[in-house]
Design goal:
By secondary structure, this protein is α/β, with parallel strands linked by helices. It has two domains: 182 residues, 3-Layer(aba) Sandwich (Isopropylmalate Dehydrogenase); 160 residues, Isopropylmalate Dehydrogenase (3-Layer(aba) Sandwich). The protein is built from twelve helices and twelve strands. Strands 2-1-3-12-11-4-5-10-8-9 form a ten-stranded mixed β-sheet, sandwiched between helices. A two-stranded antiparallel ribbon has the order 6-7. Helix 1 packs across helix 10, helix 8 packs parallel to helix 9 and helix 10 runs antiparallel to helix 11. The longest helix is centred in the middle third of the chain and has 24 residues. It is globular, with a radius of gyration of 20 Å. It binds nicotinamide-adenine-dinucleotide and manganese (II) ion. The site of nicotinamide-adenine-dinucleotide (NAD) has 20 residues, from loops.
């Protein structure tokens, strides 16, 4: 069997309670997949910062780069007031590991709530998040500005991975029947009616990429949507969206909004993807209000673990993990309080393991 080394970065708060769920699921994968796992526990977070003065130790980054095949990140606490020397380790980690895409699926449980089965692919490296801000004086008045930077290269890369995800989802759909989509589509989100230069470059780059390789991408329907009407449509009829690709800021906002469509933050998974590495990450934070109670929903982390495997090139075990989670949710019996249940984190993990 093939041995994969996975870095585990639990971080703070419930990060410590949910990351073991990902580890247990990997350990419980049937032997037919021919995979075994080694785990390395790595440090990062606000607690680590308080203890050592460093939120993301070099050792964590070096170990990921030299020893790990993939990783799982829990959550970190970030104080709302500014703390000298502290900045979020996940943001730094995405940068240092070249993880240019944040991939976030939002999926309903069949028969419950609003039908939705979409993936938001958010560009992770530029746009307003380059944080080139300044404040200056104009005729005795304070003015602040922030630079929004969009490059052709980053737009091309994010467009390409989004189209590949659309093709892959299409392929998976052909084998299963649990999707609300009949065919694949890509929706490019932009505001080029106003920002014709910056968002214009984003939109045009992806549109060209699509048109230049119709042989490969032609089975994916290409659509564009201006970001404000995107929000409207996403809440009115989320079922029409399959893969959605967006620049950093719109992607950030859309993906949190989309999470509201499926009930609990404790369900929503993500993957930070680069050309050579992937970090699975539940989208929720460290949840100090429920920390230590043993009731954190582990499903976001379990789904993130499956996504990590998928992007590492192991779609079959990933699909099996996703199916085990879906079965747990569909039965709607062993669930944590955020979903209205009475079960603990470990009860849910055990139920998912039983279904694997
Ligand atoms: P949060 O996601 O931690 O919690 C929001 C609400 O959702 C809380 O009521 C919480 O109990 C609930 N919740 C979240 N995950 C859950 C789960 N798995 N199971 C059950 N309920 C869950 O967001 P917040 O309260 O705004 O932030 C708390 C801390 O987390 C802050 O310090 C913030 O900076 C940090 N944060 C970190 C990340 C990250 O690491 N990527 C993301 C968001 C927030
Ligand atoms: Mn966000």
């Amino acid at each position: 069997p093939k041995k994969l080394t996975i870095g585990l970065i639990p971080g703070d708060g419930i990060g410590k309670e949910v990351i073991p769920a990902g580890q247990q699921v990997l350990q419980a994968l049937p032997s037919k997949y021919g995979l075994t796992f080694d785990f390395m526990n790595l440090k990062a977070g606000f607690e680590e910062f308080k203890n050592t003065g460093v939120a993301l130790p070099d050792e964590t980054v070096q170990t990921l780069k030299t020893k790990c095949d993939g990783a799982l990140f829990g959550a970190v606490s970030s104080p709302t007031h500014k703390v000298k020397g502290y900045s979020s380790p996940i943001v730094a980690l995405r940068k240092k590991m070249g993880l240019y895409a944040n991939v976030r699926p939002v999926k309903w449980v069949q028969g419950q709530g609003i039908p939705v089965d979409m993936v938001i692919v958010r560009e992770n490296t530029e746009d307003l998040y380059i944080k080139e801000e300044r404040i200056f004086n104009r005729n005795g008045e304070k003015v602040a500005e922030a630079i929004k930077r969009i490059s052709e290269k980053a737009s091309w890369k994010i467009g390409k991975i989004a189209l590949e995800i659309a093709l892959r989802r299409q392929k998976v759909r052909e084998q299963t029947s649990d999707s609300i989509h009949k065919s694949a589509s890509l929706t490019v989100v932009h505001k080029s009616n106003v920002l014709s230069v910056s968002d214009g470059l984003f939109r045009e780059t992806i549109s060209n990429l699509y048109k230049q390789d119709l042989a490969k991408y032609g089975s994916v329907e290409y659509k564009e949507q201006i970001v404000d009407s995107m929000v409207y449509k996403m809440f009115r009829e989320p079922q029409i969206f399959d893969v959605v690709v967006a620049p950093n800021l719109y992607g950030d906002i859309l993906s949190d909004g989309a999470a509201a469509l499926v009930g609990s933050l404790g369900l929503v998974a993500s993957a930070n993807v680069g050309d050579n590495f992937v970090i699975g990450e539940p989208t929720h934070g460290s949840a100090p209000d429920i920390q230590g109670k043993g009731i954190a929903n582990p499903i976001a982390t379990i789904r993130s673990t499956a996504m990590m495997l998928e992007f590492m090139g192991y779609p079959e075990p990933a699909a099996q993990i996703m199916a085990a989670v879906d079965a747990n949710l569909k039965e709607n019996k062993i669930t944590t309080p955020d979903l209205g249940g009475k079960s603990s984190t470990t009860d849910v993990v055990e139920d998912v393991l039983r279904r694997l």
